[in-house]
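Notebook entry, structure prediction.
Reason for the run: the old model in the group folder had no record of what sequence produced it. Starting over properly, with the input documented here first.
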Amino acid sequence: MYICINLRKASGLMAMIAAAAIIAVPFIGHIPKSIPASTEPDGVFLPVIMYHSILIEPARQGSYVISPEQLENDLKWLFDNGWTAVLSDDLIAYTDSGGELPEKPVMITFDDGFYNNMTYALPLLEKYDMKAVISPVGEYCQKSSESGDINPAYSYLTWDEITELDESGRIEIGCHTWDMHGTSPRKGCKKKWNESPEEYAAAFTGDISMFSVAFRENCGIEPKLFAYPYGYISKESVPLLRFMGFRVTLNCFEKPNYITRDPECLYSLNRYNRPAYVSSEEFFGKVMGD
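New structure, fully documented this time:
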């Protein structure tokens, strides 16, 4: 179904947004005790890799665009060197209920929700027995679903494609906000300097609630993971995400993570951005310390 939020459900959505903002405001200022996760050096080492778009054309490759060949080289390197991809459920089971992680866990993530993630990444994940998190921007998915324009060079995932990815067993769907993927007038979902805590809570919870409703109605998905656009973080967002049920959050600091039995360590995991024109050996040598 391609209707994100219809009029019949709009009043219920607004009530939920209002309630979330009202209830969450008293929690502003309460910051989890273990941010970032890498403050616990005795935990399980977890590198998190951040990808974005995958394109064939060399002229379009750069800091946030790699080729399918580079992605395959990366996945082959991880596979050959004994790394096992994990998702949020694996991390939550470890912190909450005494589950175990593989000897060498790695989290593979893709931001923004590009259609080319399905075109190029999914077959490679299947080939090398890997899994990944794709965190779309909700509004991009809505527009792509309405237009029906599908092109790996510029399109974003539709609701049907997100559902297919979720059902593949290879992909976890995260949240990259509904419509806070920009740098003006707000930097990502960061609090504006002149916003009161109450105004920020209303704006942030309103956006994330729209994402949650749309993905639940259109795809039957309720994400547990949140990826901050551009890595812009406000301390005020942390209790709001916790209140809304998110268990894992991702930033853009290029530092290692150490996962402990404390669930708080899953908030604000660091990630290494994967640029083009760097070999897999060189990139992972830096990230893994090999």
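Summary: The radius of gyration is 18 Å.
The old model has been moved to the deprecated folder.
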